[in-house]
Amino acid sequence: MLLAVLLSPAHAQVAPPNAGQILRQTEQAPQSLPPPQAPLKLDVENAGQSVLQAPPTAKFRVTGFRIQGNTVYPEARLQPLLHDAIGRDLDLAGLEEVAARITGYYRDHGFLLARAYLPAQDIHDGVVAIAVLEGRYDKIVVHNESLVRDWAADMPLQVLQPGDVVQTQRLESALLLTGDLAGVGDVASTLRPGSTVGTSQLDVAIPADRRVSGSVSLDNYGNRYTGGDRLGASLAVRSPLGIGDLFNVDGLVSDEHQYYGRASYQVPVGSYGTQIGAAYSALRYSLGKEFDQLDAHGTARTVGGFLTQPLIRRRDFNLSARIGVDKVELIDKIDLYGTRNARNLLNWTLSLNGNLRDNFGGGGVTSFSVSYLTGQLDFHDPLSKELDAISAHTEGHFQVWNFSLLRLQRLTDRFSLYGAFQAQVASKNLDSAEQFQLGGAYGVRGYPQGEGNGDQGYLATLELRYALTPAWQLAGFYDVGHVTLSKDPWTSDVNSRTLGDVGVAVRWNYAAHWSVDSALAWRVAGGTPDSGPDHNPRVWIRGSYYF
């Protein structure tokens, strides 16, 4: 009887948190923009090229042009650039200007070393020869001082081969993918004249990054019943095997007997930035406060694998795809009543993630993602299976779409505007591990963690930020979210909720090692919270140390 009551939507907001909900809250991370992209370190040393010699006052009646040395573009593609010069009397400077059009066309399309020039020639019948040096690699020299072995550091650069035409985007992508390897610092490169005319030697310097880094944090972001105050730590070990691999471990403990740990490992494969990896996490919790008498506790374990593939890698635009599979085991027990609810999820996820830097309105950064999840939920206890069959019907196959969009827009040297939107659409009623969540420090900040959970909904944030000093930032914000409690309701109870708040935030950073994030939020929509005490305003604070 107790479980049947807890399964109804009318009680969903006041029911004891379970393993799925707690896991979702624990692994929730703030929507983030990509870190500032360091300028691409690419120096170009140009070599001179002899050109047609003629007296400055000499003029030539041009009847046509003959283009030679071009392989990237056919002559028919280049000739229209020169049509207006045919039939004119041009001096040497005029002919050089015409040849420069071809140079500009190549460089506008990313061939940064291409150069069209007037070779030594005798002009007959007014036909002028224009030679094109498209700019090819002579050889590629790598100076590797990173934590990555030479053969592994060379992998992203293998897409650049001697004899290939130097193309900006392809070169930029290879250098950035090299810099993405764990254990590699900021890559620098130089193109210098090669051993033959029209070729360049590419020198690539690959410095080392730190072997180990991590952080320790203290916050009050947790769920009241599993511990609002939390201590967290993370550690990253770069290239432990010397192949650009990465090992991460994260841990968290609360003041109400919640424990969480996660370990992941990923390794690069091939020359195109592909990464494959695996992860394992475990969570254990006991409920306190008003639910202490239930003697409720549970566990969540997740094991998964993933593959990520950069599709576009540039300084100003990036797009990547990710496919992952996770098996999740959830167990909840209420010892006071001797009940147990064990269930498994098997989820496949395909996602696209990207970011864009532009100069619109003074410059800004946009980040976006879309993901599709298809999963299977199975109950292992007959009573839980029976209760689900007469209520939410969550067991079986389900699908979930998630969308997010973020924008940080520069307004002035000190003011910026930040906006974020995320949404979830579900095919049916979901287990709590897959539900959309509104409340908490990463959602509608006027409400506690655990408030406003449902199968689908949206969340939007708008912040006006002011850089008081390089270390201090102030912000005023507005959060609003809406959630549908059950995709397919089975009672006549209210099935949706809208939450909103306004507030102020203060952020402090010091010497890249210390940071404090704090927020004060007042509710403006949604009424009194159900999942925690009625604090208005609500205070959130997080302090972190990075090493």
From TrEMBL:
UniProt record, GO biological process: protein secretion by the type V secretion system
Record key words, sorted: Cell outer membrane, Membrane, Transmembrane, Transmembrane beta strand
Pfam families: POTRA_2, ShlB
Domain Polypeptide-transport-associated ShlB-type: 60-135
Location of the Haemolysin activator HlyB C-terminal domain: 198-487
A GO-annotated cellular component: type V protein secretion system complex
UniProt KW Transmembrane keyword: yes
GO molecular-function term, one example from the UniProt record: protein transmembrane transporter activity
InterPro entries: Hemolysn_activator_HlyB_C (IPR005565), Polypept-transport_assoc_ShlB (IPR013686), TPS_OM_transporter (IPR051544)
Protein name as catalogued: Hemolysin activation/secretion protein
Source organism: Paraburkholderia acidicola
